[in-house]
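[Discussion] Sanity-checking designs against the backbone

I'm trying to build intuition for which residues belong where. Below is a structure token string of 466 positions. I'd appreciate it if someone posts a full sequence so I can compare it with mine line by line.
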């Protein structure tokens, strides 16, 4: 049994919730959350605020909360309450996450009337992974004088393109056209005005595909870019690599500590990252971009080592896929700056919904489509484009499947430890079988990464400051 599963088994209803239910004479049954539950019966609660006060909004997990539609309904433009303020409220009542009880939070409440179509409803208990099943009638009594309305967007209406990457260019063009109100030029790259790749990136790419690359060649490329040279020296001297050698030059850093393969992949990731700026805006409580990238790459490295030799992909390329897996996030912020904040606000109030579905709903294209298209546009390896495009598709089995499968597994394992966006979701057995990695070995790989969390954060900070 994994640590996550074990934690869910021992979860119990918090005392404050028990007392509230007893006071209202509401009967309930504890139910462990799992993917087989009907999302239309699962109540998603989110706390919003504006200058006028707070509001608890409740809707089914089969829906997406559209803040624009909500603003039109209530005449107030609201966003998710600050995480620091939410944490104060939760600590006050001894709960770990927002429970679906507006009276406990002393907040007014608005619920989607679609909820009342279900005879039984599953309410968040305040403990991760534990739901409370109540009847529709008891649910209405718990709501008290709450108002109702129709504001949820059915997730079934959000169609994701999971299997046709050749259609991505058309989808991106349509999304750009919808938000720029001007004719799409003949060449997509001219339309979205992407910056050209730096010469240092092109040189690194040439070295990456050269099986006979030498230390002198990679040293020469790194040394011609002062910022990159300083970064390589910083990595080699970091506590994470625990080198006892005194690093005096770029060549020392490569030969004594990092190795050619790691330097090429780190340098390529950093150089590509500098091509597009990190957005100033971001969802509350989100894992910082480079921290997420470093963690994912490190887990993939451990998973790759656990794979049977005959199934292992190119280790360096798999590591690079981890570093760049969320590159489409930067591209979305670059291409759709007026609407990127809208995406961030909706990620905050829809923790049960994938970012892909939210982006598809508002833009008509996802960051995975954008990132994969850019990798192809920049003539990166097909394996890399495939990894970015199908990273959230655990059933992908076509060409280069081991790369997106590894990214998918790493992201899922980290998400189940609270790192990254999205709710707990078990990974399918077929994914582990396809890669030849047992669940225990996969969890061990994550344990080793999290044991070095402080050191990895230091390494991620060097990327952020570059």
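Best answer:
Here's mine. Compare freely.
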């Amino acid at each position: 049994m994994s640590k996550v599963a074990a934690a869910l088994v021992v979860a119990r209803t918090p005392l404050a919730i028990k007392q509230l239910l007893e006071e209202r004479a509401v009967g309930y049954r504890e139910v462990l959350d799992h993917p087989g539950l009907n999302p239309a019966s699962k109540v998603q609660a989110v706390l919003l605020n504006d200058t006028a006060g707070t509001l608890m909004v409740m809707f089914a997990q089969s829906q997406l909360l559209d803040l624009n539609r909500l603003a039109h309904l209530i005449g107030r433009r609201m966003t998710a309450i600050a995480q620091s303020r939410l944490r104060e409220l939760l600590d006050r009542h001894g709960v770990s996450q927002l429970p679906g009880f507006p009276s406990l939070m002393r907040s007014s409440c608005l619920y989607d009337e679609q909820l009342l179509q279900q005879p039984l409803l599953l309410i968040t208990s305040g403990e991760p992974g534990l739901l409370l099943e109540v009847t529709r009638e008891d649910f209405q009594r718990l709501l008290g004088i709450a108002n109702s309305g129709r504001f949820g967007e059915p997730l079934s209406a959000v169609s994701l393109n999971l299997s046709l990457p050749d259609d991505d260019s058309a989808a991106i063009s349509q999304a750009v056209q919808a938000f720029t109100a001007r004719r799409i030029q003949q060449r997509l790259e001219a339309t979205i005005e992407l910056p050209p790749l730096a010469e240092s990136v092109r040189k690194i790419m040439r070295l990456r595909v050269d099986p006979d690359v030498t230390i002198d060649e990679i040293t020469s490329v790194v040394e011609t870019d002062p910022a990159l040279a300083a970064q390589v020296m910083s990595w080699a001297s970091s506590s994470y690599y625990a080198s006892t050698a005194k690093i005096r030059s770029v060549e020392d850093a490569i030969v004594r500590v990092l190795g050619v393969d790691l330097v090429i992949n780190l340098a390529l990731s950093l150089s590509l990252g500098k091509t597009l700026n990190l957005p100033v805006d971001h969802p509350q409580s989100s894992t910082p971009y480079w921290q997420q990238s470093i963690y994912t790459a490190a887990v993939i490295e451990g998973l790759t080592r656990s794979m049977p030799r005959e199934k292992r992909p190119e280790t360096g390329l798999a590591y690079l896929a981890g570093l760049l897996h969320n590159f489409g996030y930067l591209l979305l912020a670059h291409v759709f700056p007026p609407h990127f904040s809208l995406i961030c606000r909706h990620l905050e109030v829809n923790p049960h919904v994938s970012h892909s579905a939210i982006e598809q709903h508002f833009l008509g294209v996802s960051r995975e489509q954008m990132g994969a298209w850019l990798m192809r546009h920049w003539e990166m390896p097909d394996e890399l484009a495939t990894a970015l495009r199908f990273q959230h598709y655990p059933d992908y089995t076509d060409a280069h499947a081991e790369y997106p499968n590894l990214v998918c597994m790493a992201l899922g394992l980290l998400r189940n430890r609270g790192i990254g966006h999205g709710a707990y979701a078990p990974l399918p057995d077929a994914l582990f079988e396809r890669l030849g990695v047992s669940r225990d070995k996969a969890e061990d790989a994550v344990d080793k990464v999290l044991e070095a969390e402080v050191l990895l954060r230091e390494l991620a900070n060097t990327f952020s400051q570059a």
